[in-house]
What we know:
Chain A is an alpha+beta fold. In chain A, 31% of the residues lie in helices and 21% in strands.
Amino acid sequence: MKLTKEEKQSLIQAKSETDWYSICDEIKSKRNGIYPNYLAREILEIFNNKFPVDKYKDLSFGQIINRKSFLNWLTLGWLAFAGATGGFFTVIIRFLFPNVLFEPPQSFKIGFPNDFEAGKVDLRFKKSHNVWIVRDDEKIIALSTVCTHLGCTPNWLEADRKFKCPCHGSGFRSSGMHFEGPAPRPLERYRIVLSNDGQILVDKTKKFNYEKGEWNRSESFLKV
Amino acid sequence: MPEDKKKESLLEKVGNSPVWKSIFRSGVPRTRRQRMYAVLGNVFLHLHPARLPRHAVKVGYTWCMGGLSFFLFVVLTITGILLMFYYRPTVEYAFTDIIDLGEQVPLGIMREIHRWGAHCMVLTTWLHMLRVFMTGSYKPPREFNWAVGVILMTLTLLLSFTGYLLPWDQLAIWAVTVGTNMARATPFLGSEGPGASLLAIGDINLIHSASDVRFALLAGRFVGEATLLRFYVLHCIAVPFIAMIFMAVHFWRIRKDGGISGPL
Amino acid sequence: MIETLKNTIDYLSTPTISFTVITAIFPFVFPPTDWFDRINRKLKIDKLWTNTGGFIQFILITGFFVLGYQDPNFKIILMKGDNFPIVLMVYSMAFFTWYAMKKSYINDARLDEGKKPMEYHDPEDKVLVWPDLVYIEFICLILFMVFLIVWSILVPAPLEEPANPAATPNPSKAPWYFLGLQEMLVYFDPWLAGVIFPTLIIVGMCAIPYIDINKKGDGYYSFKERRVGYFIFMYGWVVLWVYLIIIGTFFRGPNWNFFGPFEYWDPHKLEVLNNVNLSEYFWVIGLGQPLPSNILLRESIGFLVTGIYLFVLPVLLAKTVLKKMYEAYGPTRYTFLMILGLTMLALPIKMYLRWFFNLKYIIGIPEWFFNI
């Protein structure tokens, strides 16, 4: 049998704990001492509402630090930890990039303009510096030998007058313009200027991309 | 009772000797109890539970592919260590050392075992995955272990790929050039990936060919000396180390997720 | 006679034809629905997974390799050291697929009769790891090691000329297990085929157990209980991975041109590749105008198509055809499945667009390296 309304009321209105227990005894005796679980749960719920107890009171940080300052310290701690870890990983990533590169110099002299024949693709600097020097009737350009598709090295086919990439078959004209295959854009051109001694200087640190409209900028070609 | 002692076979004599028993606590496993104890008391064997459902020992069910993959990992580790005694990861020596491994070193098939074993390991991991899929063994509670398995398969491919460069022949550098050039196209992090040009301060590009993921992988703008060393370290130390951690998790989880899968 | 056969095989193996044929017959071999299943049984395709069927598959594959070995052109490819694992792959893939399917069909028949699957044993009846399992493992390892050593003695590991950064060999191939990716590169730009797709493959594979909510068929071979799962997995696995590897190994020659298995790898083979972007189709050919100079306006049609494919299509499907599935899966799982599934489907779609319309890019912004 569940608690009746009056029993509930009297429990809620109990003035002290002794009072409470005498009411409980009364309820029990009414039911001939039978005290099933559901009844106990009902009574316990009222008891917990009436006499709230913080079971973990002694363990709470509240006595040492108050909640607000604790949260601040916690946040600060975690932020510091995250920062340190992040910094550590950044340093590790930076570690992967050496300060000195043992690669051929990025800018180099290739000889005098007259060394290059008009209408010819010069293959001499392909192996050492990864550039083709192409001279047509009015200008000399330095083309990157890196296929814009996946970075293979195309081959110059004199008979077909095109660069043909062996990896996926991209084709480029001698100007560097792409016309067949999967390459998404033309070959890149490097900065090319005359140095003081009259030799041609190729500077690979500066690139000129056709799709950005940079091929008509000065220094992307050498007028002859 | 000298009469009884004579009947003891040599195996039993060794098996019951104090030295043997100090190593293998169970002695000669004759009874069911001793046999279970032999598995439980052995650090290597206790990868397995002591008892298994009957279908779990059928090769027709398991194809033994997971076991073979692990076995191949061990074979590759051992042959790999042996190869490291002779191989120098430099542009000058790498290729000739590989030739010497076949011609100047006794038992010149170590590289063959290593290379064919590596190909086999790719195949066995794939077939293991196929088996696990076909039997639906990835279903709960084994979902997480399937994911770990997928990562292990990726690591197997990476191991094989990093090892591909080491002979330093035409096959090697061009396969790796083609393979790593894709890294250049990583969105934001590759110099020719979409979004990379957005990462710039004023006129200065943060992501260029000497600061993108491909560079981190190759230690240069193209496949060269530094790349060889980097791939060597990745192949011999870094990736196996990561793979071993994942393997430990993989094997542990087989046991923890209720042992081998099977019909209920 | 042999020549005709070779020419026929050469012709049939062109990606346009072989891919279409395989894709078309695939649902009949691994039927995902009742309708396909009925035809599968009517045409007796399920006999593929019997002993006779397996034997015929074995004869066909072996016949192909024997025929190929006789041919001077194919022999060169076949005898390359690194291609041997692919022969092994073809055999082992065929065998294990056949074997798993055979077991599945046997189990399906048992389940129909109300019996437990073959793998079922009384849970109380257990075997001991020592010696029952340990010895089986031991024998497996020894047999495998013998196989490996014999292989190593017979076939030297390949070693070509010393590395030369200036001379790219023609063709340059990635290691065989990545040739599927390299094949995708023909149709997609590297940032997709080389970065996004591999990532999605790995993520998608990891996600399989979380997406597949079919509780049945756990721990035994069974086709009937998981046929949609089998179908999707086998399609991705056999067609979009293994088939592409085979194409990449055996059929891709100089300049990454396609060559039939018995064709001579002619480095001067000319293939006309005049690919056109969707923007050119729309503005130049469709409207007869020059391409707009504004990049976003130029590619707006591409963005529209891609947007519809990725964002509108899943919603439409969820409201119509896949309504039941959407309800069973819930929004998160459904979204994941759609992203992965549509990306997987994007590969065949782009292949066909390339073959039929010479379409290069749907969105083509080389200025930003953003091409789809």
